[in-house]
Amino acid sequence: MTNPLHTILQQMPKAELHMHVEGSLEPEMIFALARRNDVTLSYASVAALRAAYDFKDLQSFLDVYYAGASVLLQEADFFDMTWAYLLRAQADNVVHAEIFFDPQTHLERGVDMATAIGGIDRALRRGQAELGISSGLILCFLRHLSEDDALATLELALPHREKFIGVGLDSSESGHPPEKFARVFARAGALGLHRVAHAGEEGPPAYIETALDVLQVERIDHGVRCTEDAALTARLAREQVALTVCPLSNVKLRVFDAMAGHNMLQLLEAGILATVNSDDPAYFGGYINANFEALFDALPLQRRHAYQLARNGFTAAFLPPALKQAYIDRLDAFFLAHATPVGEFG
Ligand code: HPA
Ligand code: ZN
Question: pLDDT tens digits, residue range 139-151?
Fold first, then answer.
């Protein structure tokens, strides 16, 4: 039987705060761009590429993800990728999106900052104008590279300062603690940029603490391993630090063995500002609504949790208070119009 909450999950207005735009490249588009740009892929077909999407951990995913991104060469490629994501997001009733990109992945292939950021930004502006989706772009540093490389990358981005709202930290977590990037995050803070970091996905809860205390981040991406540390869990709830959780990613990368073992309910019951996001939707089996559905199908989550999760997304967004409130009002109106049927609790 399909879960009666699916309609609400699908139709409620939502924000997406953790989505790597390179991770929205569908295999068909990877092959189309490879042809357009004369790039040779090490996969013979769309089916062969899809067959490689059987990950055992974060690194095994990253290897395939960086191979996929190798087809991005021209401004139009970055535009097409981002526009395809926005159309897909609109179908899932995403009304606000804060998306990541990895400039170093492109710089090291000779694709300059203006090309990548320009194409993404052009799509985001068109998304606002034509789809009514507000958005922000967050530049992520690759933690497997040096801090000096991250510092140089930030300087290269500064001529495009008005095209991004913040910085983040992604790629291989284990062995690359947040504190490795103290100086570049301090510089970003001095520039008035928002700061986020992946932490507590594969790495230990201590990485969540140093992301907060050393990097001064405003949100934690993933952060699900916080529940291994009761004091940290209590702190995240007390300080209302948002976690941008990605359920399908967590299962695909074996952070949890199965969705039924996901700790989302535990996070919500602890009072943590948890949100639902798609991470790398083309690789992990679905966009944001698929993440909501998989979570609600596997866990005893109810209508009030759907409301809470959607509300948390707007609360945690990097938006001015009035805009945030306008989105929450829209969410409230949606839930009022979809009143709980008699006899159904939740
Ligand atoms: N974790 C770390 N790095 C990433 C991810 C992720 O989930 N997606 C793309 N880069
Ligand atoms: Zn991520």
Answer: 999 999 999 999 9
Alpha-carbon distance 75 to 88, whole Å?
20
**CA 221 to centroid of ligand 2, rounded, Å:** 7
pLDDT 10s digits, 164-184: 999 999 999 999 999 999 999
Q: Are 37 and 115 in contact (CB under 8 A)?
A: no
DSSP string, 116-152: HHHHHHHHHHHIIIII--EEEEEEEEETTS-HHHHHH
Question: Nearest bound ligand to CA 201?
Answer: 1
SS3 300: coil
In a domain, 259, yes or no: yes
Is 201 in the active site? yes
Residue 65 CA to ligand 2 centre (angstroms): 12
Please check whether residue 209 lies inside any domain of the structure: yes
Choosing from 170, 172, 255 the residue with most ligand 1 atoms within 8 A of its CB, the one to mutate for a pocket test is 170
The verdict on the CB of residue 202 being under 6 Å from ligand 1 is: no
Total tally of structural domains belonging to the chain: 1
Residue 36 resides in a domain: yes
- CA proximity to 191, closest of 158, 233, 235: 158
Nearest to 150 by CA among 176, 132, 125: 176
Residue of 178, 174, 180 whose CA lies nearest to 196: 178
223-268: pLDDT as tens digits: 999 999 999 999 999 999 999 999 999 999 999 999 999 999 999 9
Domain with 200, as residue range(s), is 6-337
Buried b (16+ CB within 10 A) or exposed e, 170-180: bbbbeebbbeb
Q: Which residues pair with 242 in a beta bridge?
A: 219, 273
